[in-house]
Write a structure and sequence with these properties.
- The chain is α+β, with helices and mostly antiparallel strands.
- The protein has a single domain, classed as Orthogonal Bundle (Arc Repressor Mutant, subunit A).
- The protein contains four helices and three strands; from the N terminus they run αβααββα.
- β2 and β3 form a beta hairpin.
- α1 packs across α2.
- The longest helix is centred in the C-terminal third of the chain and has 25 residues.
- The radius of gyration is 16 Å and the shape is globular.
Length: about 120
């Protein structure tokens, strides 16, 4: 995953892409390219998911039982694997979302300590 500027790549914490995929699939089944486009659009084009990262993540999530996959036909009439969030995937999404919010809040506290400390 990268930013718009390929020379200024964002190093993501392990599991971040997994969280973004699970969140995207909360809205319904989607094929790989659709997942990638949705993440890009929802991030206002800041996050670009390349295939070299996306498909291993999808395989990992499927192996965990958090998503399932079935063959179907895409909107441009091509054969594609469609991924869907499972019940355990929804539970994992809740856990990971809560962890991410706690992490982001903690990092925020470190980056912008209260004025009374200084």
């Amino acid at each position: 995953m990268a930013t718009r500027d390929e020379n200024n790549r964002i190093a993501l914490l392990q599991g971040t892409l997994d969280l973004l995929i699970l969140r995207t699939l909360l809205f319904g089944p989607q094929h790989g390219q659709g997942i990638s486009r949705a993440i890009q659009a929802q991030s206002d084009d800041e996050l670009l998911v390349d295939h070299g990262s996306l498909y291993p993540a999808l395989q990992r999530l499927e192996a965990q039982g958090w998503i399932s996959a079935a063959w179907g036909v895409s909107e441009n009439n091509r054969k594609a694997r469609f991924y869907q969030l499972t019940k355990s995937g929804k539970q994992q999404l809740t856990r990971e979302t809560n962890q991410w919010k706690r992490l982001a809040a903690a990092i925020g506290r470190v980056l912008e300590p209260q004025k009374s400390e200084g």
